[in-house]
Structures are given as structure tokens and as C-alpha cells.
User: Fold these one by one.
Assistant:
Number 1:
Amino acid sequence: MKIQYVLMVLMAMLFSNVATSQEGLPIYTDYLTDNYYLIHPSMAGAANCAKLRLTARQQWFGHEDAPKLLTMSINSRVGDTPSAVGAILYTDQNGYHSQTGVYATYAHHLMFSRSELDLNMLSFGLSVGMIQYKLDETSFLFDGPDPSITGTIQSETNLNLDFGFSYQFLDYYAHGTVKNLIKNAGINSDQNITSNLRRYLLSIGGVFGKYGSSWSYEPSVMLKYRDATKEAGIDINAKVYKTMEFGKIWGGVSFRNSSDGAEYLTGSNEQKKQKLQQITPLLGVNFNQLMVAYTYTYQSNSLVFTNGGFHQFTLGYNFNCKKERYSCNCPAVN
């Protein structure tokens, strides 16, 4: 029975490596640390400041070859025009798999209100990405003629597109994005999974607070769907902001749940099914033009490599800021 548990854990880790390392930029909770542009290209240049964000994520802290992700993003309006540009650089290492990518973004923002006091804006964004995938098989055990193991470092570079929209009205918002529009082979050339990495994302939320109060509250949800595997999931999020003389202090929690699960056998040969469940508290501070945030993810599944050890730090800098244009509770824009 112990052997069964070990094999199931190893299979789960292997599947996670293949799925995560070939999906383009992984979707974690980075967007909740004032970084919606990282997953929604239409948010490039939506704020009254140009934004630079650096993110470092380490999973299974203390374990060799554990997954880790580094991202750098920057986005800004083009002068006083409704156009905006952005760029993302990232590297994602996950065991024997790794990927490095660069995205360039163009976004356009349409105002429907008669003045900028009332926020009523529709935005569109398109990101073009070049992603290099690598699979290091040099340390794989090889004791037979297995054509799937070459014993070399396999490498493949693909081009892909992300397209999305954002609609922001007063204190409310909605973002929709289709990621990985183009089908490509990745490394393994799996026509059922890796050739179709298309994902659909939909974020909806709002910010509430009494007029003149230094406190505000932001509930939101993000729905996710992966086209090839028909997997669906949801993030349920809650954030709270406290306005200070130097900026803002904010915190919150995110609960991630998948509607699909994996079947496994217990020690008594009983078949069970578990779904991905993660709880992520987050804490951040905006000090003048600087932003610092930390998130920690706890995975509550019964059969996992480890429940905790998911650390993420985000450092941000806002520059070329203009006067807050809108009379609304909209921290992602004002």
C-alpha cells in the first residue's frame, strides 16, 4: 500500500510538471497583488500610473528542483492617447521542465462617460508571446529502447497569442481573456493536451466603501476553463484596504477550487476522488510609489507532495503618475 501511495504521488507530480510547464505563463494569484495585467492584456495602461512589477514564487521550499517562477512586467499609456503598451518576461522551472517567455502587448481604452469623473471604460488588449520550452532528459534512467526518451535536452520555441477585454464602470469591473489562442506542439507533441493550451479566464468584482471612509472592501471571483482537458475552476477572493497618509495597507484571502478531480486508491483499496483546493492569504502595502506584497498558499488536498511551502513575493513601482482621474473606489485604475 505504501508503494501505491508513492506511485500516485509521483504520477501527480509528473502530470503537474507536464501541465504547468507547457501552459505558458502559469496562472497563480499574482493578479491579486495589483497585477491584473499579468493575466489580462486589456489591463495594460488602464491605471493612472505606469506600472513595473517583479514577482518571485517558490513552491515546496527546501526541496531540490522544486517549481519556481520569476516574472517582470511593465505597462503604460502612450502619452495622453487611449493606446497603451506593455511587456512581460518570465522564467518557469518545474523539475525537468522549464520555459522562458516574452510577451509584448497593445491595449486600447474607450471612454463612454462624458467626463473622466465617472469611470465608464471598455478596454481591449492583445499580447504576442514567444515561449521556449525545455525538457532535460540527460539524467533520466534509460535501460531499453524507449523512443520517448532521447537522453538529451529537448527544446522547442512557439509563438502564441492572448486576447482579452475589460469593462470598468464606477466601482465595478469585469475582465475576460482567452490565453494561448494558437495551437502548437510544445515539446511532447501530444495532440490531445499539449497542442491545445487554450484557457478562458473571466474575472468579476467590485470595491465597496462608505463615502469619506478610509476602509474599502473588494470581493471578486475568477472563473477558469481549459479547452483541451475540459477542466474548470474558480477563485473566490476577498480584499480589504486601509488608506493611510503614506498610501495604503491591504490584505485578503483567496480560495481556489477545481470542479474536476483525480481518482486514487486508499490503503484499504477504497477508491476516492479529490479536487484541487488552495487557500492563499495575502498582505501588501503601497508606500508612495512603491508596492510590496507577500502571499502564502496552503493546499488542503489529502494526497499531495506537501501542503505548504508556496511562497510568493511581489515588488512594484509606479511612475509617470497622473492625477487620479476618476471618482470611484477603483484601486486598479486610480
Note: Residues 2-319 form a domain with the Porin fold (CATH 2.40.160.60).
Number 2:
Amino acid sequence: MRRKSFAEDRCPVARTLDRVGDPWSMLILRDAGFGSTRFDQFEASLGIAPNMLSRRLETLVEAGMLERQLYSEKPERFEYLLTPRGRDFQPVLAALKSFGERHYPKRRAR
């Protein structure tokens, strides 16, 4: 079942969430902001299934948040770099981090 698209919605929040509204996409953008660029780096950091990571990276490239760049021809390998749009999203992630630290602090182990 496909989810509803908000790509053409009047609300800019809805349009943005249509592109980056799932947790995996935001975590990929977070890691890219911390310097991760390669598939294996994202996979190791996030513990995400390879097929899901591939789909999310493709979606973020299509949304103009990441740019796919060839870094090895044999074997063919790509890295994913933040675009200006992706860099502009970093303060949003910082705001989410601040909100989470304040309202959902990590609980101490007993």
C-alpha cells in the first residue's frame, strides 16, 4: 500500500516531509552531515537493510538532498554527498536533536 503523497500540498511542512519524513532518511542526512558518504558507512552506522538503504538514498538523490558521485570505476562505486539543499536541512536536524534532548532524554540503565 502506497502512502499519500504530499509533494503538491499547499503546506511547505507537508511538502518537506514528503521528501524526508521517514526516520531512515533523516538519519542518513544526519550521518551525511557528520561526514559519511559511502554506502557501507551508512549501512554500518544505521544497521539498515541494504535494499532499504538503496531506496532511501535514491529518494534523497531525487529530492535533491544528496548527490551521487562515482568514486571507483572497477568495481563501480558511488558516494553520496550533501547538496546545498541537504546542507540547508542540517539546522532542522539540529533542532530535532535539541528537542529530543530536552523532551526525550536518554534513560539511564538500572
Note: The chain has a mean pLDDT of 92.
Number 3:
Amino acid sequence: MFLNRVTLFKEPQMESQYPFTIPAINNFKELELTSPVTFFVGENGTGKSTLLEGIADKCEFNTAGGSRNNLYDVDAAESALGKYLRLSWMPKVTNGFFLRAESFYQFASHMDELERENPGKGALDGYGGKSLHEQSHGESYLSLFLNRFNGQAIYMLDEPEAALSPQRQLAFLRIMHDLIKEQNCQFIIATHSPIILGFPEATILSFDNGEIEEIEYEMTGHYQITKYFLDHREKFLEELFEGE
């Protein structure tokens, strides 16, 4: 554990301004991180990615995706929340990475540009020595996790399942397990995947209902909907399409 507390500072007049118009963000005051893996869950628009991005910004990671050393720009990648956050560390680490699924293509292009500008200098060594664009989407993610993620570090991932098949989500869980046990890494992950959410002894924080609250795995909407669908597929679809 490195990052153990996130605190929000805002003035009352800010409540009418984005991102404080998001109920869970507006009601948020302080968050204690007590597990090596913390999940943010909730419906789209509930603020989980907003908070994750704000934490990444406060860590001085590129909010378009990457580490402190990845300097490139993507439209609408700036954090609206980072400047209002305070992070408490024990100890502080500067090594880490922010994975933003929606801008990963631009990150891959950024790494290719670094390789062209500095041929033979190892820009792609942390990604399997091969352009991320020359790998499938899922392969490029696993290449990142296997080669770039290492050492005492904090990793913030926004919907890593976007490029991973169910089988590769399981492979990702094993990579996480090994990084935590062998290299003392910490993860904060925003996800919709019931597979990834199943990581043992993780803390799951729900952003639904306008609050950030700890929730058990079996109580997440992602688990309940997926389980109901798999157990009652025909009935579920019949109800869904009723009236057509």
C-alpha cells in the first residue's frame, strides 16, 4: 500500500460547477484506501472515471494515459477534479501508470513517435519491443501489463476490460496477483467487468445512489445482472423484448 487516503477540498459555491454536479463527487469528502486493489463501480456518468482521472492527475501522470514521462496531448483529457484533491502516501511513489481505454490508441501512437525520434533507444522495450499498433487490442493491453508494469508502483486503470476477452481478463487477474505479491504494486481500477471485480480481498466502492460506498461483490449490479442473465437467459430476453 502506497496511497492510503484521498481527500476532496471544495467551496460551497462550487456545487453548481462540473464535476461537482455529479452527486457522488459532490458528496465525496474523504476516501480511505485499505487494500492493494480498489475497484470503482457504478453506472456510466456516476463519477468513477472522473475521480480516477483526478487521482491520476494529482499523481502527475498524463491524464490522456501514461506515466509522468509520457508528454502528449489528447482533446478533452484534462482532469476537472485533480486540483481539488489531496493525496496521503506512506510512502510516496512516483512510479506508475494511468491506463485510459478511450485514448489508448493515441498513447500507442505516442510511443511509436518516440521510437521514430530515438531509434534503438528502447522506447518500446516496456511494451514487448514491438509497436502496440502491430498487436491486437487485447495483445497490446497484455503486453503493457506484462512488460511495463513492474516494481513498487501504483497503477490506475479505467475500464481495462475494454480490450480483453473473458479469457484474457482471467490472465490479467493473474498478472495483478503476481505484481501485488512479488513487486508490491497497488491498483485502483474503474470497471464494469464482473470477472475483474472478482479479484480476492479487493475493496469495491460503488458510485451509485449519489454516494461512494463500499459494497460486497455479490451486491454489485454487474454481478447480479450477469448472473441473472446466465441463469435465466430465455426469460431475461423474453422480458427485455416484450411488447415488440
Note: The longest helix spans residues 166-183.
